[in-house]
Specification:
- With 342 residues, the chain is of the alpha/beta class.
- The protein has two domains: 142 residues, Periplasmic binding protein-like II (D-Maltodextrin-Binding Protein, domain 2, 3-Layer(aba) Sandwich), CATH 3.40.190; 155 residues, 3-Layer(aba) Sandwich (D-Maltodextrin-Binding Protein, domain 2).
- Helix content is 48%, strand content 16%.
- The strands form four sheets. Strands 7-6-8-5-9 form a five-stranded mixed β-sheet. Strands 2-1-3-11 form a four-stranded mixed β-sheet.
- α8 packs across α9.
- The longest helix has 19 residues.
- InterPro entries: Sulphate/thiosulphate_BS, Thiosulph/SO4-bd.
- It is found in: Periplasm.
- GO terms for molecular function: molecular carrier activity; sulfur compound binding.
- Keywords: Periplasm, Signal, Transport.
- One of its GO terms (biological process) is sulfate transmembrane transport.
Protein backbone atom coordinates (compact mmCIF):
# COMPACT_ATOMS: atom_id res chain seq x y z
CA UNK A 1 0.00 0.00 0.00
CA UNK A 2 1.29 3.47 -0.80
CA UNK A 3 2.98 5.49 1.93
CA UNK A 4 0.63 8.47 1.69
CA UNK A 5 -2.28 6.13 2.44
CA UNK A 6 -0.58 4.29 5.28
CA UNK A 7 0.74 7.28 7.28
CA UNK A 8 -2.49 7.28 9.27
CA UNK A 9 -6.17 6.65 8.74
CA UNK A 10 -6.84 10.36 8.66
CA UNK A 11 -4.14 10.95 6.10
CA UNK A 12 -5.41 8.11 3.98
CA UNK A 13 -8.84 9.67 3.87
CA UNK A 14 -7.40 13.05 2.90
CA UNK A 15 -5.24 11.50 0.21
CA UNK A 16 -8.04 9.40 -1.21
CA UNK A 17 -10.33 12.39 -1.52
CA UNK A 18 -7.60 14.43 -3.18
CA UNK A 19 -6.58 11.70 -5.61
CA UNK A 20 -10.16 10.96 -6.62
CA UNK A 21 -10.62 14.60 -7.61
CA UNK A 22 -7.80 14.59 -10.15
CA UNK A 23 -9.27 14.57 -13.65
CA UNK A 24 -8.04 14.05 -17.15
CA UNK A 25 -7.06 17.72 -17.46
CA UNK A 26 -4.59 17.28 -14.60
CA UNK A 27 -3.23 14.09 -16.13
CA UNK A 28 -2.33 16.08 -19.22
CA UNK A 29 -0.48 18.88 -17.43
CA UNK A 30 2.51 19.69 -15.24
CA UNK A 31 3.70 17.25 -12.59
CA UNK A 32 0.74 14.90 -13.08
CA UNK A 33 2.07 13.90 -16.49
CA UNK A 34 4.82 11.34 -16.91
CA UNK A 35 7.24 14.04 -17.96
CA UNK A 36 9.23 16.45 -15.83
CA UNK A 37 7.47 19.26 -13.98
CA UNK A 38 8.21 21.95 -11.42
CA UNK A 39 6.71 22.20 -7.98
CA UNK A 40 7.15 25.18 -5.66
CA UNK A 41 6.92 25.24 -1.88
CA UNK A 42 6.75 28.83 -0.62
CA UNK A 43 7.94 28.78 2.96
CA UNK A 44 9.27 31.01 5.72
CA UNK A 45 12.88 31.72 6.60
CA UNK A 46 14.08 28.99 9.00
CA UNK A 47 12.75 26.01 7.01
CA UNK A 48 15.53 26.10 4.42
CA UNK A 49 17.38 23.10 5.83
CA UNK A 50 14.19 21.19 6.64
CA UNK A 51 12.81 21.32 3.12
CA UNK A 52 16.18 20.90 1.43
CA UNK A 53 16.32 17.47 3.06
CA UNK A 54 12.60 16.77 2.76
CA UNK A 55 12.49 17.63 -0.96
CA UNK A 56 15.43 15.35 -1.68
CA UNK A 57 13.76 12.41 0.06
CA UNK A 58 10.31 13.09 -1.36
CA UNK A 59 11.63 13.38 -4.91
CA UNK A 60 12.73 9.75 -4.76
CA UNK A 61 9.56 8.58 -3.03
CA UNK A 62 7.33 10.29 -5.57
CA UNK A 63 9.33 8.92 -8.50
CA UNK A 64 9.12 5.41 -7.05
CA UNK A 65 5.37 5.60 -6.42
CA UNK A 66 4.22 7.54 -9.49
CA UNK A 67 6.97 7.24 -12.09
CA UNK A 68 6.93 11.03 -12.42
CA UNK A 69 9.96 13.30 -12.52
CA UNK A 70 9.25 16.47 -10.56
CA UNK A 71 11.66 19.26 -9.65
CA UNK A 72 10.80 20.31 -6.11
CA UNK A 73 11.85 23.88 -5.42
CA UNK A 74 11.46 26.14 -2.41
CA UNK A 75 11.25 29.85 -1.76
CA UNK A 76 12.10 31.25 1.67
CA UNK A 77 11.59 34.63 3.32
CA UNK A 78 9.66 36.40 6.03
CA UNK A 79 6.31 34.63 6.35
CA UNK A 80 4.18 37.73 5.87
CA UNK A 81 6.18 38.79 2.83
CA UNK A 82 5.93 35.28 1.38
CA UNK A 83 2.16 35.27 1.77
CA UNK A 84 1.92 38.60 -0.05
CA UNK A 85 4.13 37.26 -2.85
CA UNK A 86 1.72 34.36 -3.40
CA UNK A 87 -1.25 36.74 -3.38
CA UNK A 88 0.55 38.93 -5.92
CA UNK A 89 1.18 36.05 -8.32
CA UNK A 90 4.00 33.78 -7.14
CA UNK A 91 2.68 30.37 -8.21
CA UNK A 92 3.18 28.20 -5.15
CA UNK A 93 1.84 24.65 -5.27
CA UNK A 94 1.94 24.54 -1.47
CA UNK A 95 2.69 27.04 1.26
CA UNK A 96 4.39 26.10 4.52
CA UNK A 97 4.25 29.32 6.49
CA UNK A 98 5.00 30.43 10.03
CA UNK A 99 1.43 30.92 11.19
CA UNK A 100 -2.19 30.39 10.25
CA UNK A 101 -2.97 34.06 9.67
CA UNK A 102 -0.63 34.22 6.68
CA UNK A 103 -2.41 31.26 5.07
CA UNK A 104 -5.76 32.90 5.87
CA UNK A 105 -4.63 35.97 3.95
CA UNK A 106 -4.01 33.84 0.87
CA UNK A 107 -7.38 32.14 1.37
CA UNK A 108 -9.11 35.51 1.55
CA UNK A 109 -7.54 36.35 -1.81
CA UNK A 110 -9.35 33.31 -3.25
CA UNK A 111 -6.30 31.12 -3.86
CA UNK A 112 -6.82 28.61 -1.03
CA UNK A 113 -10.03 26.97 0.15
CA UNK A 114 -11.39 28.81 3.18
CA UNK A 115 -11.57 25.52 5.13
CA UNK A 116 -7.87 24.76 4.59
CA UNK A 117 -7.24 24.39 8.34
CA UNK A 118 -9.31 21.19 8.39
CA UNK A 119 -7.75 19.58 5.33
CA UNK A 120 -4.88 17.94 7.20
CA UNK A 121 -4.41 16.62 10.75
CA UNK A 122 -3.52 18.80 13.76
CA UNK A 123 -5.06 21.89 12.19
CA UNK A 124 -2.74 21.54 9.19
CA UNK A 125 0.36 21.96 11.36
CA UNK A 126 2.52 18.81 11.03
CA UNK A 127 5.22 20.03 13.42
CA UNK A 128 5.52 22.68 16.13
CA UNK A 129 8.17 24.94 17.59
CA UNK A 130 8.48 27.65 20.22
CA UNK A 131 10.45 30.79 21.07
CA UNK A 132 13.71 30.82 23.03
CA UNK A 133 16.69 33.10 23.59
CA UNK A 134 20.06 32.58 21.94
CA UNK A 135 23.00 34.13 23.81
CA UNK A 136 26.75 34.03 23.49
CA UNK A 137 28.68 31.27 25.25
CA UNK A 138 28.81 31.78 28.99
CA UNK A 139 25.78 34.09 28.88
CA UNK A 140 27.90 37.20 29.63
CA UNK A 141 24.85 39.43 30.18
CA UNK A 142 23.26 36.92 32.58
CA UNK A 143 20.01 36.72 30.61
CA UNK A 144 17.49 34.22 31.98
CA UNK A 145 13.96 35.49 31.33
CA UNK A 146 11.89 38.13 29.58
CA UNK A 147 12.55 40.61 32.42
CA UNK A 148 16.21 40.68 31.46
CA UNK A 149 15.36 41.89 27.96
CA UNK A 150 14.10 45.25 29.26
CA UNK A 151 17.30 46.03 31.18
CA UNK A 152 19.19 49.11 29.99
CA UNK A 153 22.38 47.12 29.38
CA UNK A 154 20.82 44.49 27.07
CA UNK A 155 20.65 44.83 23.28
CA UNK A 156 18.22 42.62 21.34
CA UNK A 157 17.99 41.20 17.84
CA UNK A 158 14.53 40.12 16.62
CA UNK A 159 12.74 40.21 13.26
CA UNK A 160 10.04 42.73 12.35
CA UNK A 161 6.46 41.62 13.23
CA UNK A 162 5.18 43.44 10.15
CA UNK A 163 6.99 41.04 7.82
CA UNK A 164 8.05 38.01 9.87
CA UNK A 165 5.82 35.31 11.30
CA UNK A 166 8.49 34.33 13.81
CA UNK A 167 8.59 37.92 15.04
CA UNK A 168 4.87 37.82 15.73
CA UNK A 169 5.31 34.68 17.82
CA UNK A 170 8.18 36.46 19.65
CA UNK A 171 6.07 39.52 20.35
CA UNK A 172 3.07 37.55 21.61
CA UNK A 173 5.23 35.39 23.88
CA UNK A 174 6.67 38.53 25.48
CA UNK A 175 3.22 40.15 25.69
CA UNK A 176 1.67 37.19 27.54
CA UNK A 177 4.61 37.04 29.95
CA UNK A 178 4.11 40.72 30.74
CA UNK A 179 0.35 40.32 31.05
CA UNK A 180 0.80 37.61 33.66
CA UNK A 181 3.53 39.59 35.43
CA UNK A 182 1.37 42.72 35.68
CA UNK A 183 -1.95 40.92 36.31
CA UNK A 184 -3.45 42.15 33.05
CA UNK A 185 -2.65 45.86 33.51
CA UNK A 186 -2.44 46.87 29.86
CA UNK A 187 -0.62 50.14 30.53
CA UNK A 188 2.21 48.27 32.25
CA UNK A 189 2.19 45.55 29.59
CA UNK A 190 2.56 48.13 26.82
CA UNK A 191 5.34 49.81 28.76
CA UNK A 192 7.17 46.49 29.06
CA UNK A 193 6.90 45.75 25.33
CA UNK A 194 7.84 49.33 24.44
CA UNK A 195 11.00 49.05 26.52
CA UNK A 196 11.82 45.68 24.97
CA UNK A 197 11.64 47.13 21.46
CA UNK A 198 13.62 50.19 22.50
CA UNK A 199 16.42 47.72 23.21
CA UNK A 200 16.25 46.22 19.70
CA UNK A 201 19.34 47.03 17.65
CA UNK A 202 18.44 44.97 14.55
CA UNK A 203 14.89 44.50 13.25
CA UNK A 204 15.34 42.29 10.20
CA UNK A 205 12.55 41.37 7.78
CA UNK A 206 12.80 37.64 8.54
CA UNK A 207 14.03 35.19 11.16
CA UNK A 208 17.06 34.00 9.18
CA UNK A 209 18.15 37.57 8.61
CA UNK A 210 17.93 38.17 12.37
CA UNK A 211 20.12 35.11 13.00
CA UNK A 212 22.65 36.45 10.50
CA UNK A 213 22.70 39.82 12.27
CA UNK A 214 23.33 38.17 15.64
CA UNK A 215 25.71 35.37 14.65
CA UNK A 216 27.64 36.66 11.65
CA UNK A 217 27.53 40.41 12.23
CA UNK A 218 27.90 40.20 16.01
CA UNK A 219 24.98 42.52 16.75
CA UNK A 220 23.16 42.46 20.08
CA UNK A 221 23.46 40.47 23.29
CA UNK A 222 20.49 38.17 22.71
CA UNK A 223 18.52 36.84 19.76
CA UNK A 224 14.83 36.13 20.29
CA UNK A 225 14.58 33.08 18.06
CA UNK A 226 12.65 30.12 16.82
CA UNK A 227 13.75 27.11 18.85
CA UNK A 228 14.81 25.23 15.71
CA UNK A 229 16.82 28.22 14.49
CA UNK A 230 18.64 28.43 17.82
CA UNK A 231 19.34 24.69 17.80
CA UNK A 232 20.74 24.85 14.27
CA UNK A 233 23.10 27.60 15.40
CA UNK A 234 24.30 25.47 18.31
CA UNK A 235 24.87 22.55 15.96
CA UNK A 236 27.05 24.70 13.71
CA UNK A 237 28.95 26.62 16.41
CA UNK A 238 30.00 26.07 20.04
CA UNK A 239 30.04 29.83 20.67
CA UNK A 240 26.39 30.13 21.71
CA UNK A 241 23.89 28.69 24.14
CA UNK A 242 20.13 28.59 24.50
CA UNK A 243 18.21 30.15 27.36
CA UNK A 244 14.66 28.85 27.87
CA UNK A 245 12.42 31.57 29.35
CA UNK A 246 9.96 30.74 32.12
CA UNK A 247 7.04 31.11 29.70
CA UNK A 248 6.81 30.80 25.92
CA UNK A 249 4.28 30.13 23.18
CA UNK A 250 3.40 26.96 21.29
CA UNK A 251 4.17 27.93 17.71
CA UNK A 252 2.26 25.96 15.07
CA UNK A 253 3.55 26.58 11.52
CA UNK A 254 0.82 25.97 8.94
CA UNK A 255 0.77 24.06 5.65
CA UNK A 256 -1.75 24.23 2.80
CA UNK A 257 -2.28 23.35 -0.83
CA UNK A 258 -2.71 26.45 -3.01
CA UNK A 259 -5.89 25.21 -4.67
CA UNK A 260 -6.13 27.69 -7.51
CA UNK A 261 -2.53 27.07 -8.58
CA UNK A 262 -2.57 23.26 -8.40
CA UNK A 263 -5.84 23.06 -10.31
CA UNK A 264 -4.37 25.31 -12.99
CA UNK A 265 -1.08 23.37 -13.20
CA UNK A 266 -2.52 19.90 -12.66
CA UNK A 267 -0.43 19.25 -9.56
CA UNK A 268 -3.08 18.60 -6.91
CA UNK A 269 -2.19 14.92 -6.50
CA UNK A 270 1.50 15.58 -5.86
CA UNK A 271 0.72 18.62 -3.68
CA UNK A 272 -1.52 16.61 -1.36
CA UNK A 273 0.95 13.74 -1.26
CA UNK A 274 3.74 16.21 -0.44
CA UNK A 275 1.92 17.53 2.61
CA UNK A 276 0.75 14.08 3.69
CA UNK A 277 4.36 12.91 3.63
CA UNK A 278 5.19 15.51 6.26
CA UNK A 279 2.96 13.49 8.62
CA UNK A 280 4.50 10.14 7.71
CA UNK A 281 7.05 8.55 10.03
CA UNK A 282 9.83 9.47 7.65
CA UNK A 283 8.58 13.05 7.33
CA UNK A 284 8.33 13.38 11.10
CA UNK A 285 11.87 12.07 11.48
CA UNK A 286 13.11 14.69 9.01
CA UNK A 287 11.31 17.41 10.98
CA UNK A 288 12.82 16.22 14.26
CA UNK A 289 16.33 16.00 12.80
CA UNK A 290 15.94 19.62 11.73
CA UNK A 291 14.90 20.59 15.28
CA UNK A 292 11.15 20.93 14.80
CA UNK A 293 8.94 19.22 17.36
CA UNK A 294 7.21 16.34 15.55
CA UNK A 295 3.53 15.58 16.14
CA UNK A 296 4.22 11.85 16.18
CA UNK A 297 4.54 11.09 19.90
CA UNK A 298 6.91 8.16 19.51
CA UNK A 299 9.27 10.17 17.31
CA UNK A 300 9.08 13.15 19.67
CA UNK A 301 10.10 10.89 22.57
CA UNK A 302 13.05 9.67 20.52
CA UNK A 303 14.30 13.25 20.04
CA UNK A 304 12.94 14.74 23.26
CA UNK A 305 16.34 15.33 24.84
CA UNK A 306 17.31 17.90 22.22
CA UNK A 307 14.40 20.19 23.08
CA UNK A 308 14.49 22.46 26.16
CA UNK A 309 11.60 22.07 28.60
CA UNK A 310 9.33 25.11 28.68
CA UNK A 311 5.96 26.13 30.01
CA UNK A 312 3.92 26.83 26.87
CA UNK A 313 0.62 28.59 26.21
CA UNK A 314 -1.40 28.64 22.97
CA UNK A 315 -2.47 31.60 20.91
CA UNK A 316 -6.09 30.47 21.15
CA UNK A 317 -6.04 30.44 24.95
CA UNK A 318 -4.14 33.69 25.43
CA UNK A 319 -5.22 35.80 22.45
CA UNK A 320 -8.40 34.26 21.05
CA UNK A 321 -6.73 32.99 17.88
CA UNK A 322 -4.74 34.55 15.07
CA UNK A 323 -7.48 36.67 13.52
CA UNK A 324 -8.05 38.53 16.77
CA UNK A 325 -4.33 38.75 17.59
CA UNK A 326 -3.46 40.09 14.16
CA UNK A 327 -6.14 42.77 14.28
CA UNK A 328 -5.25 43.95 17.80
CA UNK A 329 -1.48 43.79 17.61
CA UNK A 330 -0.11 43.81 14.06
CA UNK A 331 -2.63 45.55 11.80
CA UNK A 332 -1.97 49.19 10.95
CA UNK A 333 -2.57 51.20 14.11
CA UNK A 334 -2.40 48.12 16.34
CA UNK A 335 -0.41 47.83 19.54
CA UNK A 336 2.89 47.20 17.76
CA UNK A 337 2.52 50.45 15.82
CA UNK A 338 1.54 52.21 19.04
CA UNK A 339 4.58 51.13 21.02
CA UNK A 340 7.33 50.88 18.42
CA UNK A 341 9.42 53.86 17.45
CA UNK A 342 12.29 53.26 15.07
Amino acid sequence: MKWWKTASLALGIVAAIGFAGCGSEQAANGADSKGAGEFLNVSYDPTRELYAEFNQVFTGEWKKESGQDVEFRQSNGGSGKQARSVIEGLEADVVTLALAYDVDEIAQAGLIDKDWLKKFPDNSAPYTSTIVFLVRKGNPKNIHDWDDLVRDDVKIVTPNPKTSGGARWNYLAAWEYARQKFNGDETQVKGFIKKLFQNVVALDSGARGATTSFVQRGQGDVLIAWENEALITLKDSPDYEIVAPSLSILAEPSVAVVDKVVDKKGTRKVAEAYINYLYSENGQEIAAKNFYRPRNKAIFEKYKSQFPELKLFTIDDAFGGWTKAQKEHFADGGTFDQIYQK
